[in-house]
């Protein structure tokens, strides 16, 4: 069913009641799994993710000296989907292409911001469990992993936060014009071209940029700008979660 945008001109609201630049409700916790070195639980709308971190621990590999000496810690990511997480109940194995792509994106992005040189010959393992899928899944995984790594005490240059942005047909009379939308839900992702952008801290330094759909080049700049602004909002929300947990511990 095509996305109905006929009400946007009247109420200036999206189908879930948000304005174009509003995030969905975000709920997050850290230290949710006592047995893990670090853990987190994150909800972005109806997308729900649990992340656990193990390590840094002694790496699994042949070399402790020789050619492998002085190598940085290795980041490993494993992603699992609950059978009830999506509309279709299907099992996703490790060989699933989309799961492998998400794991690779997480591995490369966190390897660039974690201070892995402090833990030579070690492994930092991230395990993500998807409980519910309703859009912005990669962004939710990145945000949950950031919180879990902070809980584990793994040093990093700054937070890595992510958000999605899309291009929606505008209600104006300008032919070919479009309005950007922030933080997409599942229905919007099915109908609109969108991208996932991840930034480092409160800056505008882009560390992750994934786009799997086609869009006109003149719309891309607006989508990216909205996504970066959304990352700044997400950074403040995650920082608040960490501060609140610190107060409880003290």
What does this structure look like?
With 250 residues, the protein is of the alpha+beta class. It has a single domain, classed as GHMP Kinase, N-terminal domain (Ribosomal Protein S5, domain 2). Helices cover 30% and strands 28% of the residues. It is globular, with a radius of gyration of 19 Å. Mean pLDDT is 85; it is low at 1-10 and 63-69.
In short:
With 250 residues, the protein is of the alpha+beta class. 30% of the residues lie in helices and 28% in strands. The strands form two sheets. The protein has a five-stranded mixed β-sheet, with helices on one face.
CATH architecture: 2-Layer Sandwich
Tell me the number of helical segments per DSSP (H or I, 4 or more residues long). Answer: 5
**Domain tally:** 1
Task: Note the run of SSEs as H and E.
Answer: HEEEEHEHEEHEEH
Radius of gyration: 19 Å
Termini separation comes to 51 Å
Q: And the CATH topology?
A: Ribosomal Protein S5, domain 2
**Structure class:** alpha+beta
Q: How many strand elements?
A: 9
Helix content: 25-40%
Biggest sheet, in brief?
5 strands, mixed
């Amino acid at each position: 069913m095509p996305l109905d945008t006929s009400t946007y001109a009247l109420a200036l609201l999206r189908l879930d009641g948000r304005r174009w630049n509003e995030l969905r409700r975000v709920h997050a916790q850290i230290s949710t799994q006592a047995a893990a070195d670090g853990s987190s639980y994150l909800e972005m709308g109806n997308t729900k993710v649990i992340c656990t971190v193990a390590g840094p621990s002694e790496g699994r590999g042949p070399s402790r000296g020789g050619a492998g000496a002085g190598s940085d810690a290795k980041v490993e990511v494993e992603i699992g989907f609950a059978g009830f997480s999506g509309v279709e109940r299907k099992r996703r194995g490790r060989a699933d292409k989309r799961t492998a792509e998400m794991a690779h994106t997480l591995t490369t992005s966190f390897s660039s911001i974690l201070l892995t040189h402090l833990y030579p010959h070690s492994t930092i393992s991230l395990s993500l469990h998807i409980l519910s899928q309703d859009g912005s899944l990669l962004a939710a995984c990145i945000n949950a992993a950031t919180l879990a790594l902070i809980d584990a005490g793994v040093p990093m240059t700054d937070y890595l936060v992510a958000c999605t942005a899309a291009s929606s047909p505008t209600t104006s009379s300008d032919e070919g014009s479009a309005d950007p939308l922030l933080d997409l839900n599942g229905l919007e992702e099915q109908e609109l071209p969108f991208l996932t952008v991840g930034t480092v801290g409160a800056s505008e330094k882009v560390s992750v940029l994934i786009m799997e759909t086609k869009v006109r080049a003149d719309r891309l700049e607006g989508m990216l700008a909205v996504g970066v602004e959304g990352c700044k909002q997400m950074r403040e929300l995650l920082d608040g979660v960490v501060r609140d947990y610190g107060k409880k511990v003290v």
